[in-house]
Amino acid sequence: MKYVRLSLAMDPPVRHPMHQFVVETDGYDASYMLRGNSVGEELQTLLFHVDGFPPDPYRAALEATDLVVDYAISTCPDETFYLYVQDRPSETDTALVEALTRAQLVLVSPVAYLADGTVELTLVGPGQAVQRAVDAVPDPIDVDVLEVGTYDSRRLDTGSTLTDRQFAAVAAAVETGYYENPRDGTVADVAERIDCAPGTAAEHLRKAEARVMAGLVDSDTGPV
Fold first, then answer.
1. In the β-sheet with 106-114, what is the strand arrangement from edge to edge?
2. How far is CA 215 from the centre of its chain?
3. Contact, 29 vs 163, CB < 8 A?
4. CA 202 from chain center: how many Å?
5. Do 159 and 215 touch, CB atoms closer than 8 A?
6. How many C-beta atoms surround the C-beta of residue 43 within 10 A?
7. What is residue 221's predicted lDDT score, i.e. its pLDDT?
8. Per-residue pLDDT band at 68 (split at 50, 70, 90)
9. How far apart are CA 30 and CA 167, in angstroms?
10. Cα separation, 165 vs 115, whole angstroms
11. Which of 27, 165, 216, 217 has its CA 20 to 30 Å from the CA of residue 158?
């Protein structure tokens, strides 16, 4: 059994309005679709984890979107929030789901809607089906293959999923000795590496560390 990780790019007019909101709005790094019922059907029910704050601008955007039928928001201590939403998929979303279903591929959560306008997702299936994944993605979506390999759920563990900027911050922290004992690097060093303000670098590190630790605590494996 194989998996393929894809990055999908589409123009703003065909993006879901809430993904476009994440792209356009400061303070929002990504939204992750964690679970879904009736995905691609006329009315679908979805659960997201939104890496952004505060929730009020996001709530206003939900209210202004014709595709959204109902929603509920639950905030988290790390300045992120969960979103339950019932909505109608866009034409592009429907076409994508239908294409992947025809290709006999299984979508593995989470699906990441990133602030750079791309969507990252992982598909699992027999080797031949995975090879058809790129061809299955309909126009006007551009596809970039990020990774292909033998499926192992531990490799695709969603508990520690980081945004690109959070990963870059953690990588810079490791490279500069921020996590050494005694500590060699500083937040300022991390900020210089990823070209942002020290306060922004600190926030990326805090969110990344919180997500990784939460993933470890929630793991079914427990301590060895």
1. 68-75, 81-87, 44-52, 28-37, 106-114, 118-125, 2-9, 142-150
2. 15
3. yes
4. 21
5. yes
6. 12
7. 47
8. very high
9. 13
10. 10
11. 27
| Tokens linked to 187 | 């937040």
pTM: 0.72
CA angle 57–32–4, rounded 5-degree value: 150
Is the Cα dihedral 138, 142, 148, 150 positive or negative? negative
Tokens of 186: 């500083």
- Which alpha helices (DSSP H) does 25-126 contain, by range? 55-64, 91-102
Query: For the chain, give me the number of helices (H) and strands (E)?
Result: 8, 8
* Tokens found for residue 176: 């500069």
Structure tokens of 195? 């070209």
Q: Residue 78: enclosing H or E segment and its boundaries?
A: none
Strand, coil or helix: 161: coil
Each residue's pLDDT tens digit, 126-171: 877 777 777 778 778 898 988 888 876 655 554 446 676 787 888 8
